[in-house]
Design a protein that fits this description.
Helix content is about 55%, strand content about 15%. The protein is an alpha+beta fold. The longest helix is centred in the first third of the chain and has 43 residues.
Length: about 425
């Protein structure tokens, strides 16, 4: 019993090996990333993988930010001039528009509602002529339009109701070669009723204001005149053709439509901005999705480079792996070493791309202007695009998706080569050494 006690006392505890992801595993993994005399080509592939992931992530962040910027800017421009919800009279003319506006203005989430007389017409000057969409509107309402308020470049909207003048867009003013104070003639085919039918009506109006919305198509088509004058000109006495409403959150249209249906108080046809601009925004959404998948291929190709680089590294380090195994390293340790090697490339590349993408996306307009100045270019010419500046809006959820996608692809790319390294048989690897 004494001997047994002595043996137990003098017995030393069995030494424990290094734990998972220990400093030893990290040291070997990072050492494999550095160029050596025999595996310089492997390190070159690792560098190309890092560069590919960085550029892929940065490009995705920049392009998604630009697409988001386009969506938000165009929505603000288009909806800022056209409204969020449109109410048109059904069964009977909309001559009680003040009562309808009073009722819907009490709905929570409603910002502003205004009546309009809207009709297509021809506009001409002594120099040119063009088609137009003429809108009759009250002075207090036109000053509340998001697309018009603050965008009057020449003239003024003060006294708009009593001045019997019109406000036109900058592009239309250039097309007709007119300035504030000049007169333009408005022609409609649906004029006064005569014994011989409907006679065309034409009348000249002075230009009292020129506005610039920022969307060239809108600046070249809209003409605003006082509501009472439009009612008389288009034979809509005491009547509005449409009520345009603006809401606090245009993304929650279904909820607003349900609220309005119970507050209108008369038969009306209701449409919203999604229906009127459906094809345009659907095309923008499809383009955004397609661009995301196309640019994701850059990250996928970089991840495939990680696979090829690690596979070559496993082949090159077969003897070293065998020695590690004979010294007591487990399959799990070998697996983790190569997982760390490949993941380091992916994580470092993703981080570099993340920082580069945010830097470029935040300063995209400045970069564009600098390139135009340095090389005498005209990148993003407003003549051919809806907007006068290159928009970029960074959406945190998009950036998160891109970073998670890149890290996931990088991690998945390391699994197969790492598993192959863990299965290396020390006997076979050292047989011919």
């Amino acid at each position: 019993m004494t001997a047994t006690t002595a043996d137990a006392t003098t017995a030393k505890p069995e030494p424990k090996g290094a734990g998972p992801f220990s400093a030893f595993e990290w040291m070997l993994a990072l050492r494999y990333l550095r160029s050596r005399r025999g595996n310089g080509f492997v390190s070159l592939i690792a560098g190309l993988s890092f560069l590919g992931i960085s550029l892929g992530v940065a490009t995705l962040i920049v392009v998604m930010s630009v697409m988001n910027g386009f969506h938000i800017e165009l929505m603000n421009k288009i909806i800022g001039i056209n409204g969020h919800i449109f109410l048109q009279g059904a069964d009977t003319p909309l001559n009680d528009y003040d009562e309808v506006i009073g009722r819907i203005s009490k709905v929570p989430g409603m910002k502003v509602a205004l009546p309009m007389v809207e009709a297509a017409a021809g506009v001409s000057s002594p120099y040119q002529q063009a088609g137009a969409l003429v809108r009759g509107i009250r002075e207090k309402d036109i000053k509340q339009l998001p697309g018009i308020a603050g965008n009057v470049k020449q003239g003024t909207l003060d006294g708009f109701d009593t001045g019997e003048g019109v406000a036109i867009g900058q592009k239309m003013a250039e097309t007709l070669s007119v300035r504030v104070g000049d007169k333009v003639s408005i022609l409609t085919a649906r004029g006064a009723a005569t014994p011989f039918g409907i006679a065309p009506r034409i009348k000249a109006y002075p230009v009292v204001a020129i506005f610039q919305i920022g969307v060239s198509d809108f600046d070249g088509i809209f003409v605003y005149m006082p509501l009472t004058e439009a009612q008389a000109f288009f034979n809509k006495e005491d009547e509005a053709t449409v009520i345009e409403a603006f809401v606090d959150d245009p993304e929650k249209m279904d909820e607003m439509r349900q609220k309005l249906e119970g507050s209108i108080g008369r038969p009306m046809i209701m449409t919203d901005w999604r229906q009127r601009n459906k094809s345009f925004f659907e095309a923008l959404k499809v383009e955004r999705t397609v661009m995301f998948f196309i640019l994701t291929l850059i990250v996928i190709v970089a991840a495939l480079n990680i696979i090829s680089g690690l596979t070559m590294l496993v082949k090159d380090k077969g003897r070293a792996i065998a020695i590690l195994r004979t010294m007591g390293a487990t399959k799990g340790a070998v697996l983790r070493i190569f997982l760390i090697t490949g993941s380091t490339i992916g994580i470092a590349g993703t981080l570099a791309g993340f920082l580069l993408g945010l830097l470029v996306a935040r300063n995209l307009e400045s970069i564009r202007q600098t390139l135009n100045w340095l090389f005498n270019l005209n990148l993003f010419d407003p003549t051919y695009y809806f907007l006068s500046r290159l928009p970029s809006v960074i959406v945190p959820s998009d950036v998160t998706t891109i970073v998670v996608l890149s890290l996931s692809l990088s991690l998945l790319a390391t699994i197969l080569p790492s598993w192959s390294a863990a299965k290396v048989d020390p006997v076979d690897a050292l047989r011919y050494e």
